[in-house]
Amino acid sequence: MDVQELKVEGADTKRFVLVHGGGFGAWCWYKTITLLEKHGFQVDAVDLTGSGVSSFDTNNITSLAQYVKPLLHFFDTLKPTEKVILVGHDFGGACMSYAMEMFPSKISKAVFISAAMLANGQSTLDLFNQQPESSYEYDLMEQVHLFLYANGKKNPPTAVDFDRSLLRDFFFNQSPPKDVALASVSMRPIPFAPVVEKLHVSEKNYGSIRRFYIKTMEDDYAVPVCLQEAMIKSNPPEQVFQLKGSDHAPFFSRPQSLNRILVEISQIPSKKSS
């Protein structure tokens, strides 16, 4: 079926909520917003605390709850019966999992795009520590991340910034130059405390929401495919989709393919109990 024909008729909700990854902001979804709106969906992209246009100093964020507060506020403003499809990228996966635990009745489906899909009691840092230290991806990750110590070097880092000269290699090796330029002037440090905080989710709340995973395949060095597969294996979603030829930012490098998958997920019917 042509994606143009899909539109929103078969969707159980006509509203998408997009959650950016670490260092990104709502700005990164500009192509996805445009494409989904063209298909008749209502789309909201949230700036988490200290991200995008949020004026808060990233170094002062001390918890995951504080970081995801704008997303929780969004859910507080929804009508009681309204449901959304929640989409998260990168560290946004941990952030949306936090919201899934708090607002299970307001989320019809959750979509993780090369995202941190954590098990209960796991932190995002735990996840990345699983990578083999000899890998090219690990070496690049070591080089691209710059720790910030707003409370002095004797205390833990307060945030993680990026070496702008390595952004293309690490995140955007398949993305158009104009999107790399947009990212290089728009990306902000990632708050460190939420990355090391262990996520607590339950079967009753988080586990009641239908989860889908979109794997970015060959050229994702930020969350390599082996790491994505490890998450999928330890915390299996309902269905896994593959985005071939994408870097870590499919909303830049493969926007049409990403949109096709998101529209397809919106069409997957509710499971009827026999």
TrEMBL record:
Record SUPFAM superfamilies: alpha/beta-Hydrolases
Domain (AB hydrolase-1): residue spans on this chain: 16-258
Keyword Secreted: no
Pfam families on file: Abhydrolase_6 (PF12697)
GO MF annotation, one: carboxylic ester hydrolase activity
Entry keywords, A to Z: Hydrolase
Highest taxon of source: Eukaryota
PANTHER family per record: METHYLESTERASE 15, CHLOROPLASTIC-RELATED (PTHR10992:SF1025), METHYLESTERASE FAMILY MEMBER (PTHR10992)
Annotated protein name in UniProt: AB hydrolase-1 domain-containing protein
Species this protein is from: Eruca vesicaria subsp. sativa
